[in-house]
């Protein structure tokens, strides 16, 4: 992803429309939406805010929460709940592509993808993670429910000593898994998962800090 180099940070931005000029200046009009965190140099001119780009940037079309739910849920057709062993397949993919994280699973530190497929333990863990992700996708547009469920996911993982830094890259693992299942994520679906993952991580870290747990 392209980055800005900044003096000020705008987080979960306030943007409705972005208007490009020949000098790469963008006007931002207020509307709360979920965007990635970018570092920007901000120049205030009266009641308007102008953001000058200090580096090349990829601009996303603004996506409303209902659209995030729509696109993430649509992509989950590749990994439905209660149909086969799709959750277990996630762990097979995860262990094969990111073996450096196997140490979080005591007794399975040396498992191969084939070992995962024969494991009842990973059948159960897979069912749980699949359900978690489906609920998060289906509730994204309902902020209070989404936030409460993120808290529940954190509580479920308290005893597993998961490195809090992994909550953000987890969503890269997840979209990689979906593509391995034939989802062939569209640009809009990928963006929707990026937005959901960013919001999930922010809420997770905020909650972990609030309850006195390690956070990133």
Automatic annotation (TrEMBL):
<keyword id="KW-0813">Transport</keyword>
<dbReference type="InterPro" id="IPR000971">
    <property type="entry name" value="Globin"/>
</dbReference>
<keyword id="KW-0561">Oxygen transport</keyword>
<dbReference type="GO" id="GO:0005344">
    <property type="term" value="F:oxygen carrier activity"/>
</dbReference>
<keyword id="KW-0408">Iron</keyword>
<protein>
    <recommendedName>
        <fullName>Globin domain-containing protein</fullName>
    </recommendedName>
</protein>
<dbReference type="InterPro" id="IPR012292">
    <property type="entry name" value="Globin/Proto"/>
</dbReference>
<dbReference type="GO" id="GO:0019825">
    <property type="term" value="F:oxygen binding"/>
</dbReference>
<feature type="domain" description="Globin">
    <location>
        <begin position="67"/>
        <end position="209"/>
    </location>
</feature>
<dbReference type="GO" id="GO:0020037">
    <property type="term" value="F:heme binding"/>
</dbReference>
<comment type="similarity">
    <text>Belongs to the globin family.</text>
</comment>
<dbReference type="Pfam" id="PF00042">
    <property type="entry name" value="Globin"/>
</dbReference>
<keyword id="KW-0479">Metal-binding</keyword>
<keyword id="KW-0349">Heme</keyword>
<dbReference type="InterPro" id="IPR009050">
    <property type="entry name" value="Globin-like_sf"/>
</dbReference>
<dbReference type="InterPro" id="IPR044399">
    <property type="entry name" value="Mb-like_M"/>
</dbReference>
């Amino acid at each position: 992803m392209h980055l800005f180099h900044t003096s000020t940070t705008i987080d979960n931005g306030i943007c409705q429309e972005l208007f490009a000029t020949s000098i790469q200046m963008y006007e931002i009009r207020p509307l709360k939406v979920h965007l990635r965190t970018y570092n920007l140099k901000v120049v205030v001119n009266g009641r308007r805010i102008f953001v000058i780009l200090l580096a090349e940037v990829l601009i996303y079309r603004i996506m409303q929460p209902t659209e995030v739910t729509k696109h993430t849920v649509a992509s989950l057709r590749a990994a439905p709940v209660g149909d086969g062993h799709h959750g277990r397949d996630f762990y097979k993919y995860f262990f094969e592509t990111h073996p450096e994280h196997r140490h979080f699973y005591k007794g399975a530190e040396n498992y191969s993808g084939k070992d995962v497929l024969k494991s009842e333990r990973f059948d159960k863990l897979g069912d749980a993670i699949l359900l978690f992700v489906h609920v998060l996708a289906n509730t994204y547009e309902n902020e209070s429910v989404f936030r409460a469920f993120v808290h529940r996911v954190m509580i479920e993982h308290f005893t597993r000593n998961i490195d809090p830094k992994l909550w953000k890259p987890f969503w890269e693992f997840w979209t990689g898994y979906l593509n391995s299942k034939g989802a062939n994520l569209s640009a809009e679906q990928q963006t929707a998962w990026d937005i959901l993952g960013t919001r999930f991580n922010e809420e997770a870290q905020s909650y972990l800090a609030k309850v006195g747990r390690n956070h990133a």
